[in-house]
Design goal:
heterodimer; A: alpha+beta; D-Maltodextrin-Binding Protein, domain 2; four-stranded antiparallel beta sheet; 15 strands; about 40% helix; about 15% strand; B: mainly alpha; two-stranded antiparallel ribbon; 15 helices; 2 strands; SBP (chain A); Bact_solute-bd_prot1 (chain A); palmitate (chain A); membrane (chain A); cell membrane (chain A)
Chain lengths: ~425, ~300
């Protein structure tokens, strides 16, 4: 009898302990939503730093919140791949909000991170509207960029340039001086890669218009927005003139982006039009990081210079995530504590952070961040941009301009602008947009 | 006969085996070729950006746009360069196939050398030739070392007058081997007795080619011509990788791609796809009739 009791007791103990085990195991997989712990999957486009910087952040995060595990998934062709995965529920816990998702769809895919009023206490309000819908913010910028021109200080000095250009004419003169007095290529278009030409587009918004509403609210209603003197004309004309006057590389069709970074660093190239994200890459591309400088787009409005600024990829939380608290903790940790944006040479959305060291020479220009579209203009820019097939945000028409300047297509610049105006007007008409 | 007996006969078992074996490839073909094709035809009647949940039916407007706006159809001009290139390619391939058919030292080695480019991935070829044609690249270095001044050399990909010849020559280099192997296969099937008889009659090599080889491989030549025309119309990899359509080297397929994925007019791009298919079908049909008529 006694023996039997003992056996029962032992069985109970075994069963009980195994149940405890179950419970314990369960806690780590089915995390209660408000507690920080368990495993999260972070999907990122930064394949380059996944084993270095990101691995360090992961270690520090797991130390700060014991019981958490962070798993990374780095995706090379991020935009395309993530758009497909969004059709399932399996797109990690934290991801970078893809730019192809319309803001009306945000609530279907992502968890709201708070209202602007709540978030603006800690973060720079201007950058909160980039992933914004119906009063709520769905993405927080991992870092922010400003649009200017990367140049080689040493080459400028050799060419005898003392005053930084603030008009397109001055800029062209600088390039001419570079061509005459140094061996460097004055401007490198990176035509072959295509996307570096699109960098010019961002200058059309804040840098030249100086108006935060221009991109999303003004140009969509504007009559003939590509006429002489208008921001898009100014910017594209400068690109045209550089190529037309032979101030760029000899054979743009076979240019090479990776090589161009090294060449600018070594003083073989004087200027390239690139976002501020490129500064640290170019500094790292050779042995002369101190020669790499950054200047605003050569334009001024009554003596004042402006520069388009905007959020890069934003962190977002999968609305199907089972571990939202930990996901949020990771985002907060990345933005508030790691200093990631500054370490990349980018602008941080934290109010308390200063401008990065790379932008030391850039303080004179005022940053202009695009204001979101009003409800009536929502998504309108994209519609007009695509339907007119001008596709300002792609390289198709930019290449057309360069080809015209090279003389290979026989088109004149003003004809291209006339064509754009006509196509823009047609798209406005087809979509019943009021033209002011 | 009961069902069981029926199933056990050789004839029915054969059928079962055929059906089960064909089921998988047919299913794959239907899912990955025919269903998307039906969808593409459907999309071509809609205005749709590819991701939006709403599609607007617009009838034949997409087709009307393609035929009324010159920027779409003029892309076929570029194809002419490739078409001329492929005629040259067929001529060279025929020459090599004939020469390598006769007794020759290391002829299989030469066949291998000529066929080899066809085995290389098209993307890799694009990259290799991008470096070959770039300024101060392999070709420039080679020509300057032969004593031609650099200033006399054009930008092979940068000059709009030269770029399409450069690209078409890459295409010739790549597909020459495939043509040659097809021709030499056909030539090998010609009975050796005929050559013997011809040489006894005193026919020289050219006469042998003209009266024996050529009539025997006429069908293969016509097949290659059809393939050449199709290839020329749907050129894609080489201009995509080497110039991405710059300097007037864009083709109809590249334009379709831009229409679908850059300006997000998936409906219009589908219509372009359908038109391309129709053109190729018509050409195939015409050529088939033409050659059939000749043989009869």
């Amino acid at each position: 009898m006694k023996k039997k009791n003992l056996a029962v007791l032992m069985c109970t103990v075994i069963v009980a302990t195994s149940l405890i085990g179950c419970k314990g195991a369960k806690r780590t997989t089915n995390q209660s939503p408000d507690e920080i712990g368990g495993e999260i999957t972070v999907i990122t486009h930064r394949t380059d730093i996944i084993d270095t910087k990101m691995a360090d952040y992961k270690k520090a995060f797991e130390k700060k919140y014991p019981g958490t595990t962070v798993k990374f998934e780095a995706v090379t062709d991020y935009e395309t791949d993530i758009a497909i995965r969004l059709q399932t529920e399996e797109y990690g816990d934290v991801l970078m909000l893809p730019s192809s998702i319309k803001n009306t769809d945000f609530p279907n895919y992502f968890e709201s991170l708070g209202t602007v009023d709540e978030l603006k206490k800690k973060y720079d309000e201007r950058f909160l509207y980039s992933k914004f819908y119906d009063g709520k913010v769905y993405g927080l910028a991992s870092n922010c960029n400003v649009q200017g021109m990367v140049y080689n200080k040493k080459v400028f000095k050799e060419a005898g340039i003392t005053k930084m250009p603030t008009t397109p004419e001055e800029f062209l003169n600088c390039l001419k001086q570079v061509k005459q007095k140094t061996k460097a290529i004055p401007y490198y278009t990176n035509f072959a890669a295509g996307w570096p030409l699109v960098q010019w587009q961002d200058q059309c918004w804040g840098s030249v218009s100086g108006d935060k509403d221009y991109h999303n609210n003004t140009i969509v209603h504007e009559k003939d927005p590509f006429s002489e003197g208008k921001p898009n004309y100014v910017v594209h004309k400068l690109l045209y003139d550089i190529v037309k006057q032979g101030l760029c590389e000899n054979d743009p069709v076979t240019s090479d982006w990776e090589q161009s970074k090294v060449m600018l660093n070594n003083g073989e190239i004087a200027v390239m039009d690139l976002g501020s994200w490129a500064i640290s890459q170019i500094k790292a591309a050779g042995s002369h990081p101190d020669d790499v400088g950054y200047m605003p787009f050569p334009w001024n409005i009554n003596g004042k210079q402006y520069a388009t600024a905007g959020a890069d990829y934003c962190y977002a939380i999968n609305t199907h995530s089972e571990n939202k608290a930990t996901a949020r903790a990771w985002i907060d940790y990345m933005i508030d504590e790691t200093g990631f944006a500054l370490s990349e040479g980018s602008i941080s959305i934290l109010k308390s952070d200063p401008l990065p060291d790379t932008l030391k020479d850039f303080t004179k220009a005022e940053l202009v961040v695009d204001a979101p579209a009003t409800t009536e203009n929502d998504g309108l820019f994209d519609v007009l941009n695509n339907e007119s097939e001008i596709a300002l945000t792609s390289d198709i028409e930019k290449k057309r301009i360069v080809e015209a300047a090279l003389g290979s297509s026989g088109e004149s610049f003003d004809n291209i602008m006339k064509d754009w105006n006509a196509r823009w007007a047609q798209a406005q008409k087809d979509n019943d947009v009021e033209v002011k | 006969m009961t069902l069981r007996q029926k199933l056990s006969t050789r004839k029915y078992q054969q059928k079962i085996i055929i059906i089960t074996f064909l089921l998988v490839p047919m299913l794959l073909l239907i899912i990955f070729t025919y269903l998307p094709f039906v969808d593409m035809v459907k999309f071509s009647f809609f205005k749709w950006n590819g991701t939006s949940p709403t599609m607007k039916f617009i009838g034949l407007k997409n087709y009307k746009d393609i035929f009324t706006k010159p920027e779409y159809l003029e892309m076929f001009k570029t194809s002419l360069y490739y078409l001329i290139g492929s005629f040259i390619q067929i001529a060279i391939a025929l020459y090599f196939a004939t020469v390598l058919n006769y007794k020759l030292r290391a002829k299989n080695f030469f066949k291998g050398v000529i066929f080899f480019p066809y085995l290389i991935n098209g993307v890799a070829i694009g990259f290799a030739f991008m470096y070959f044609f770039r300024e101060f690249g392999t070709l420039d270095t080679l020509l300057t070392s032969l004593g031609i001044a650099k200033s006399n050399l054009p930008l092979w990909l940068g000059n709009p007058k030269v770029v399409n010849y450069s690209l078409a020559s890459v295409s010739v280099w790549r597909y020459l081997g495939q043509n040659m192997v097809m021709f030499s296969g056909a030539i090998a099937s010609v009975s050796p007795d005929l050559y013997e008889a011809a040489s006894i009659d005193g026919a020289n090599r050219w006469q042998q080619f003209k009266y024996i080889i050529f009539p025997n491989i006429k069908i293969i030549i016509s097949l290659n011509l059809i393939l050449a025309v199709k290839g020329a119309i749907s050129v894609f990899e080489i201009p995509k990788i080497m110039t991405d359509g710059a300097n007037g080297s864009s083709t109809f397929v590249l334009k379709t791609l831009d229409t679908a994925f850059t300006v997000h007019k998936v409906g219009l791009a589908s219509a372009m796809g359908v038109i391309l298919l129709l053109i190729i079908m018509i050409i195939t049909f015409v050529q088939k009739r033409f050659f059939e008529g000749k043989e009869a």
